[in-house]
Amino acid sequence: MTIWQQLRTVPNLLSLLRLALVPVFLVLILNGFNLEAVIVLIVASVTDYLDGYFARKLNQETRLGQLLDPAADRLYIFATLIGLSVVGYIPIWLPMIVIGRDLLLLFTYPILASRGYGPLPVHYLGKAGTFALLYAFPLLLIASAFPDVSLFVLPVAWAFAWWGIGLYWWAGFVYLAQVRSVVKSSPNDSARLGD
């Protein structure tokens, strides 16, 4: 299947929609359009679930989708964390903790590439952490932007946020263990050449 054919599958179109909504969300949140920003976050969360569902249901799992979906998730998470922290709806330590995990994993990509591997498959713990974070963000936004409901929404929002952070980091450690296994089982090119 060509890249163009892969791009036209339902799951990948949903991931592209999620990517296209990132700047829309940022413009809305930074300009005080909170209700509209909540709607965009909800749509993004739904597309994250639906792209995986349709990939399995329609047998449209592609290599592009395996790369596009987590990239869209990460970009959405980063943009949402930055937007929410800039307007003061979340404390600055929250984006630092979440983005810090991905910065930690960033060094693994050149290591994998030196052994002929691309990014390793997404672990279900990472998907669960992303799922929880994508639920937490609209709820945190609702609780901060609409104080009348914050008493009920805020505890649920933080529960999702803490679960998301925990699962996200746990998945990160699983990923590091997988990278370590790859490194141990396949020496890099220079090691094979005796350099």
Instruction: Output the radius of gyration.
Output: 18 Å
DSSP summary, beta strand count? 0
Average per-residue pLDDT, rounded, comes to: 84
Strand percentage lies at under 5%
Q: What's the helical proportion of residues?
A: over 70%
CATH topology: Four Helix Bundle (Hemerythrin (Met), subunit A)
Principal-axis shape equals globular
Q: Using the 3D structure, state the CATH architecture.
A: Up-down Bundle
Instruction: Give, in order, the helices and strands.
Output: HHHHHHHHH
Structural class: mainly alpha
Short note summarizing the structure:
It contains nine helices and no strands. With 195 residues, the protein is mainly α.
Topology:
Blueprint: H1 3-7, H2 10-30, H3 34-57, H4 63-86, H5 93-106, H6 108-114, H7 124-145, H8 150-185, H9 189-192
Helix pairs in contact: 2-3, 2-4, 3-4, 3-7, 4-5, 4-7, 5-8, 7-8
Tell me about this structure:
The protein is mainly alpha-helical. The protein has one domain: Four Helix Bundle (Hemerythrin (Met), subunit A) (Up-down Bundle), CATH 1.20.120. 81% of the residues lie in helices and 0% in strands. The longest helix is centred in the last third of the chain and has 36 residues. The chain starts with a helix and ends with a helix.
Which properties best describe this structure?
195 residues; mainly alpha; Four Helix Bundle (Hemerythrin (Met), subunit A); globular
